[in-house]
Amino acid sequence: MAMKSVWITLLCLFVIAEADQGFDVRHHLSTVTRYSASKEVSQNLIKGSNVPSECTPIHLNLVARHGTRSPTKKRLREMENLSGRLKELVREAEASEKVPGWLGKWISPWQGKVKGGELIRQGEEELYQLGIRVRERFPTLFEEDYHPDVYTIRATQIPRASASAVAFGMGLFSEKGDLGPGSNRAFAVTSENRASDTKLRFFECCQNYKSYRKAKGPAVDKLKEPVLDKITASVAKRHGLNFTKQDVSSLWFLCKQEASLLNVTNQSCELFTPSEVALLEWADDLEVFILKGYGNSLNYRMGVPLLEDVLLSMEEAIKAREEKFPPESYEKARLRFAHAETIVPFSCLLGLFLDGSEYEKIQKEKPLELPPQPPKTRDFRGSTMAPFGGNNMLVLYSCPAASSPKYFVQVLHNEHSIALPGCDGKDFCPLEDFKAKVVTPHLKHAFDNLCNANLDDPEKKHQSPWSWLLGSSQKTEL
Ligand SMILES: *[C@@H]1O[C@H](CO)[C@@H](O)[C@H](O)[C@H]1NC(C)=O
Ligand SMILES: *[C@@H]1O[C@H](CO)[C@@H](O)[C@H](O)[C@H]1NC(C)=O
Ligand SMILES: *[C@@H]1O[C@H](CO)[C@@H](O)[C@H](O)[C@H]1NC(C)=O
Ligand SMILES: *[C@@H]1O[C@H](CO)[C@@H](O)[C@H](O)[C@H]1NC(C)=O
């Protein structure tokens, strides 16, 4: 009997070890995940495309997040503080054999760095390679000579987004110019003023959203608190250090940066077990859900000007073709570079990552349940929706005149074809259906009404009746 339970225990240990071996923390970093790690995962999730071979792409819309960037200035200071704090903890510790060796000696790899938030080398590479892949995938769209009206490149005024646009363009137009050994060519990247950029920085132009976000911050922190409490206790016990919640929160931030930016997974990330990482990732995703995603319809409806811009660009391309304009005279691609705050709402407007019943709820303006806690699985994941360099492409196809309908839209999420719940689960959606079922239902919400109508209007108050009770929260731009 005793022998049997030993075997069972051993078997369990073996199974757990096996499961851990398959676990790669780099896939669980919410919106700090690298594009390459995210793509590996989504390759398994998203099925191949089924575009009929007789249909040709005639226009491309891209909405991309900037590539991997360094931590912001405030976070750099937090990491410098952490270094001193860890030394203090190690000094106080009793059971020193449990304390990881690196911990007392750790100094921030960004020590002395004054400025943060910029696109780093790995981020340049991500967007540069994406540009090359897009050109290779759609050769007919990129055979025209460059003209700023044919290939429109737009970025927000934030430098990591415009630098991402430049890196992408260098890939897209490499070997097409006369500049330097790479035969580069110059191209234009234009930006709206950040205060009025309703297409790419609607989250900054929308007063009601800003109020919502500020008011909701403390409630989000409260929601995440039990996870942090639980993990703080178990991490402290396991490593024999008297960690506070703030310490553990900073260490999780450090883990994400080390794993993502430095490809180091055997240091701070090793403080956490895989199931703790899964919980911390979920807590991050909850915040994305509530403040940027399906958690509140305002989060994505304020992105309607972007959705309209996408549709308009398609209609203009069709009109130009049907009126037989010369091909070099009209737009082939509209390429946009922005933020997680842009692409998460944009994915929500498209209804991505919802199952059929959730999509119906959204349409009936009923709230969705929060993404379920691990070990339950969920579709709403920051690591998939908005990794660094994460993107949605909407490819407009023209099919032979004999077939009806003639125009179709394919959505590529991180370069993989994805089914649209709003288009009866199709991944090759007739343009008319795309317009009628996916876009039009959103158009009844005018940006100005949603965003700038007076909040004191009693009809609006029901959205968050208790929000005024709660204080302010910090702004965390992704
Ligand atoms: C760093 O530590 C100082 C002193 O404890 C504190 O006042 C400051 O808020 C901390 N900064 C960050 C970014 O955590
Ligand atoms: C751990 O820290 C808390 C406050 O941060 C303190 O009250 C407690 O005495 C400390 N425990 C040990 C064992 O040092
Ligand atoms: C990151 O580290 C892993 C080993 O843990 C290695 O296989 C991989 O090539 C590294 N990636 C980069 C981009 O350096
Ligand atoms: C992590 O791995 C690297 C490369 O294998 C090694 O040099 C380093 O000492 C390891 N760090 C820790 C804290 O184990």
TrEMBL record:
GO terms for molecular function: acid phosphatase activity; bisphosphoglycerate 3-phosphatase activity; inositol phosphate phosphatase activity. Residues 457-478 are annotated as: Disordered. The keyword Transport does not apply. It is found in: Cell membrane. Residues 1-19 form the signal peptide. It comes from the Eukaryota. It holds the Pfam family His_Phos_2. Its EC number is 3.1.3.62, 3.1.3.80. Disulfide bonds join 55-399, 255-269, 423-429. Its main location: membrane. Residues 464-478 have a biased composition (Polar residues). It catalyses: (2R)-2,3-bisphosphoglycerate + H2O = (2R)-2-phosphoglycerate + phosphate; 1D-myo-inositol 1,2,4,5,6-pentakisphosphate + H2O = 1D-myo-inositol 1,2,5,6-tetrakisphosphate + phosphate; 1D-myo-inositol 1,2,5,6-tetrakisphosphate + H2O = 1D-myo-inositol 1,2,6-trisphosphate + phosphate; 1D-myo-inositol hexakisphosphate + H2O = 1D-myo-inositol 1,2,4,5,6-pentakisphosphate + phosphate. Belongs to the histidine acid phosphatase family. MINPP1 subfamily. Keywords: Cell membrane, Disulfide bond, Glycoprotein, Hydrolase, Membrane, Signal. This is Multiple inositol polyphosphate phosphatase 1. GO terms for cellular component: plasma membrane. It is an enzyme of class 3 (hydrolase).
